[in-house]
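[retry 2/3] Phosphatidylglycerol--prolipoprotein diacylglyceryl transferase: previous attempt timed out, resubmitting with same input.
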Amino acid sequence: MLIHPDFDPVALHLGPFSIRWYGLMYLAGFMAGAGAARWRIKTQPWLHWTVEQVDNFLTYVVVGVIAGGRMGYVLFYKPEFYLTHPQDILAVWQGGMSFHGGFLGVIIAGWLYARREKRRWLEVTDFVAPLVTFGLGFGRLGNFINGELPGRVTSVPWAMVFPKVDAFSRHPSQLYEACLEGLVLGFLLLWFSRKPRPMGRISALFLIGYGAFRFAVEFTREPDDFLGLLAFGFSMGQWLSLPMIIAGLWLWLWSGKLDKMSRTTESSLAMRDK
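[retry 2/3] Phosphatidylglycerol--prolipoprotein diacylglyceryl transferase: success.
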């Protein structure tokens, strides 16, 4: 049995100010994503992105993640509480961020950026999909450092006690998510995007991959005490992941059909020109 190290959530004290590990993990995720974006535009010239465009787009992404993540938590998890305590909605330092809300925030940010730059929306989402995994991985490490969002009670050899929660041995589900949603999904998307793909395919793979990994890990993660398990014994995270998987499968098929139609049209035009 392992014991959670019970890290101090504050990484650095600067007089009356403090820098928390969770915030540093978000920063690390954004920096790693920015570095990967620059690497992609250098090694994948068919993307047609510049460093300046990447920097501008990442600004949209940061706002989308923070605003969407917070509003997703407010609306999906505690709508009754925040309806009666609206002054707490902006108190992000108290915790409470939702990936699915942050995901929707990035989708909206990508749409706004695509409109501004006159790019196709799926072209933008295909570019950002592999970069999101860095934020997912580091974010879950932040959860682990804080000792929050622990797993369900278990007797597996690597079970861990989280003293801030209780004295029971639990799955370190934060590390499962960091590994699957960060490392595994990130490697898969970067590998898949190493050469040109039909528009929408990379976004589809992200939706399917994240949705499937999150759905699976939720079986080891302790449900939120204020929600518990919902219909069919699924958690809120699982119910929010199912539409992602369905949308990803549909987008994968639609992308293939669109690519096939495009190739057929190009072939017909070439034959006509001859």
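[retry 2/3] Phosphatidylglycerol--prolipoprotein diacylglyceryl transferase: The first helix runs from residue 21 to 43.
[retry 2/3] clearing retry counter.
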